[in-house]
Amino acid sequence: MKNETTLNARQQSIVTIAAFTASGDIEKLKPALNEGLDAGLTINEIKEVLVQMYAYTGFPRSLNGMAAFMSVVKDRKANGIQDEEGKEASPVPADFNRDEYGAKVRAKLAGLDKDISGAEWQLFCPIMDTFLKEHLFADIFVRDVLSEEDRELATIAALANMSGTGGQLFFHYGAAMNSGLTEDQMNSFVEVLDTKVDKKQAQSAKEVLAGVLAKRSK
Fold first, then answer.
1. Using the 8-state DSSP alphabet, how is residue 138 labeled?
2. How far is the C-alpha of 38 from the C-alpha of 107, rounded, in Å?
């Protein structure tokens, strides 16, 4: 059983990179990107975080983050720093069933044996449900450059540093723990937000986490 109590330097960098990408604060993002590379994140792992961000923050923030990363990598190369490129995503099988895979991932993250179906929002807009399953939880999550834990850590960091996303943050806190992160690591996550990102956002994130933990303890 996992008993990690804190986020390591690599995980903390995923948090700050995702958070500042979400807020569009490029001046804070660039140092976070440098710290991430120094902490052991590969170039491809950081690219993957930035790519995933478009699903939660939109293409403009994601593209701006990628442009900032390109600049950071170029500067480091110019200074003689050789960062590890890292692994590429494994090929997806030709018979990959995106709907089935996405439904399975979403169910696991939600802590369910079977994926949700028949919810009012799904009936109101079925295509949104399709995109969530087939694109977000299949096309993106099947890419094995990052683990599900890393992806959920990036997700809660982005959601915690945005406005009006408390409901989504509530779900993804649970998803983060269902993917393998511990309660202590979630508390560590809030501490990282408080010390490295934004104290006000950290306080809001702490309040949402308290609700999640209370529900899971019942």
1. I
2. 35
